[in-house]
Amino acid sequence: MINRLKHRFSGRTVAESSEKSRRGFGGRIAALINRSSIGDDEWEEIQDLLISGDVGPGFAASTVDILRRRIKEQRIATSDAVHAALRVLLVNSLDVGCSSFASGGMPTVVLVVGVNGSGKTTSVARIAHRLKCLGFTSVLAAADTFRAGAIDQLKVWGDRLGQRVVAHQQGADPAAVAFDAFEAAVAVKADYLLIDTAGRLQTNQNLMSELDKIRRTISRRDESAPHEVLLVIDSISGQNGLSQARLFGDAVDVTGIVLAKHDSSAKGGIAFAITNELRVPIKFIGTGEAIEDLAVFDRNDFVDALLKRES
Q1: Are 18 and 261 in contact (CB under 8 A)?
Q2: CB within 8 A of 133, min separation 6: which ones?
Q3: Would you write out the chain's pLDDT as a tens digit for each of its 311 residues?
C-alpha cells in the first residue's frame, strides 16, 4: 500500500520544500566537498554543519569518520566521488524498513499522535485526501476532545473531502469516540479509519495513559489494530522533536513518522536523528500548506534535495 501512496500528486515536491534546509546546511556541505582538497578544517566544518542541521552530534561525528575512512581506503580522489560517497552514507542511514500501511482486513486503523501544534489534524486530512485520490474511502475520528475547535476543524476537512467524521462533544472520552468510529467504518465498509488525537504534552503521563486507552479499546474490536501509529513531528522543533519521538515511542509503539512543515525548516537533519536513534521510518513529509502538499517519504529524493549542488 505504501507503494501505491507514492503516486505523484499536484502538491509541492520534496526538492521544492527542501530549499531552506539545502541553504541552511546541505548545500554548504556540498560546496565544501566540491573543493579540490579537504583538510582537517573543512572536515570539522562539515561536522559542524551537520550538527547545525539537527542530525545530532553522534551521527555527525560517525558520518564524518566513516566518510574520511572510506575516502582513504578506496582512494577516492574527485569531488564528484566524495559527494557520491556521502550521498550513499546518508541514504543508507535512512533505511530502517517500512511497513505496508495496510492491515489486509477492513478497515486499516491509523492512529495519529503528537504534541500541540505539530500538525496532526492537517496531516490526517492530507492522508485522507491522498487515499481518496487513489480510490480509497476513510472515516475520520475526532478523538481530540480536549482542544477547543479541534472537532470543528476535522469536520470542516471531512466536509471538504466528502469523508465521514465521527465526533462526540468536547470533553468526551476519546476512546469512546475511537470505538464508535471503528464501528462506523465497519458499517460503511471504509478502507481506512484515521484517528486524530489530542496534542499531548509528552511529559503528561495521564494524557499518555489516555492514548494507551484508545489503543486498548480499538484492539478489543480488532486485535491487530491499530495497524499504524504515526507520530507527527514539526520539522522546526529540531532536537526537541527527537525527544518527543522517544517518549511517544515508549508509550504507544510508534510505527512511522510524519515530518510536518518541512518547507518551513532550515534543519531537515532531524530526519537522520530520528531514524538512526529510534529506527523508526519516516513515512510522510509535509511539503507546503495546501491539502496536496504531503509526499510519501523517499530517502533518495530527500538526500538529493539536501545535497543539491549549485550548477
Answers
A1: no
A2: 7, 9
A3: 455 455 545 567 888 888 877 777 888 898 898 887 889 999 999 999 999 888 989 999 999 999 999 999 999 989 899 999 999 999 999 998 766 666 667 899 999 999 888 899 999 999 999 999 999 999 999 999 988 789 999 999 999 999 999 999 999 999 999 999 999 999 999 999 999 998 866 556 777 788 889 999 999 999 999 999 999 998 887 777 788 888 887 778 899 999 998 887 767 788 998 888 888 899 999 988 889 999 999 999 999 988 887 65
CA 263 to chain centroid, in Å, comes to 13
Which residue, 198, 199, 194, 172, is CA-closest to 181?
194
Question: Three-state DSSP class for 130?
Answer: helix
Whether a cis peptide bond, with omega within 30° of 0, leads into 107 is yes
Dihedral (CA of 125, 130, 132, 133) sign: positive
Exposure letters 81-101 (e unless 16+ CB within 10 A, then b):
ebbebbbebbbebbeeebeeb
Distances, alpha carbon 157 to alpha carbons 87, 117, 127, 263, 296, in Å: 39, 17, 11, 22, 20
Q: Which residue has the cell 496534542?
A: 199
**For the chain, where are the alpha helices, taking DSSP H only?**
14-17, 19-21, 27-33, 40-52, 57-73, 79-93, 120-133, 150-161, 174-187, 205-221, 239-252, 270-278, 299-306
